[in-house]
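QA checklist item 7 of 12: single-chain prediction sanity check.
[x] sequence parsed
[x] length recorded as 128
[x] structure emitted
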Amino acid sequence: MTDEAIRALAKRFFDCVEAGDVDGLVACYAPDARIWHNTDRLEQTPAENRATLRGMVTRILDREYADRQLQVFPGGFVQQHVLKGTRAHDGVRLELPACIVCQVEDGKVTRLDEYFDSAHVAEFRKTA
């Protein structure tokens, strides 16, 4: 894949979350992709990640990936950003700094490693 194609995939991937298009994001994954989060050190399948993201987009409104810093390398990309949003149940505005490392093959994300500060994640997951 060219750098331009990887950049387009990365943009589409994060734009889907902003728009609440979970199925569009999952379509960016290879069927056997693995998604890992540093906060629990567990891997998810695309189907499991779909369920996680559906919950997030219902709880966090006005999602925006701000300050996107995308670096492409042969076979993937790294993106640093700040995910901003509003918690639906109480209107609190949140920010979640993150770093995402993705491996890409044949136009699909085959592995995603997600790095968050656990304190920020706790605020995102807080419910009434």
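[x] summary fact logged: The radius of gyration is 14 Å.
[ ] second reviewer sign-off
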